Amino acid sequence: MLVRGFIAAVILATHATAAMSAVWSGCAVNALIGLPLGFWTYGTGYSQASCNTKCYTEGYAFSYFGRSTIGIAGMCSCAAVSTAQPVLRNSAPSQCTGAQLTVTALSTSFQFGGCASTVSRQDSGPSATFVDFSACWSFCANYIYAIIDPDAIVFYRCYCANTPPIIVSSNICGSNYFMYSHSAAQAASGIARRSRRDEAEARQRLLAAHKDCPVGYDACLLSDDPNDDSYECLKTHSELESCGGCKYGYHSMPEPGFSRVSAVE
To answer: Which residue intervals of 28-118 are DSSP H helices?
Structure first.
């Protein structure tokens, strides 16, 4: 069935990234080859919910839960990444057989929205190849949709979009596209975080260009007068009057044709 607008109303994430989520990320083949390197098995007798909680509190991003794996009930394993092997080809959305491991993401704002056999994106969002679901979600953090295609043995093709894609839905996920989305507000918060990071990096590059101040000192303007170019060198992270920054802002590099007023020592 052709589904237009993939998710008419984007599912609002019930958990912030700082809180535990529980987002289905496929089925691992079995306990031997479904688990990635660096996993840790905590034992048996767990439920899906208690396994998720255990892995999250231990600092892992993914839980691997087996209802009846190799004859052992309630086996709980944890890992920092999703399975490096594509999920079993005949796995249906959110349903893994008893012999498979249910892979659950515990730290993402994205929500699972079903699988699709074909996808037609309506905008030109970026794409890349990763070996982990969470890498795709991070890559698409500034977009509403993250589309994951397990197109190779250990690689996933990742597509980002803001416009709802046109899809043909499927109840088989292993060989098809995994569809994820989060709200426009969450996508915007990702842009804001990136913008603040870029601004901070630009400021550091600017301050690094000032050779007049010793290492560890910032060039701080002496007044808020736009015509006053004088500055002094301060340790803004230790001087109480600076409160962690320059009171009137940081001195910028002079425009061509202008000279800088001497620094006040």
So the answer is: 48-57
Same domain, 169 and 245: no
pLDDT tens-digit series, residues 168-210: 988 888 778 999 999 988 888 765 555 445 445 444 544 454 4
* pTM, full prediction: 0.63
In the chain, the N- to C-terminal Cα span, in Å, equals: 74
Short-list 195, 265, 189, 200, CA closest to 233: 265
Same domain, residue pair 94 and 73: yes
Of 29, 21, 59, the C-alpha closest to 42 is 59
Residue span of the structural domain in which 166 resides: 1-13+110-208
Strands (E) located in 52-105: 62-69, 72-79, 101-105
End residue of a domain, out of 62, 80, 107? 107
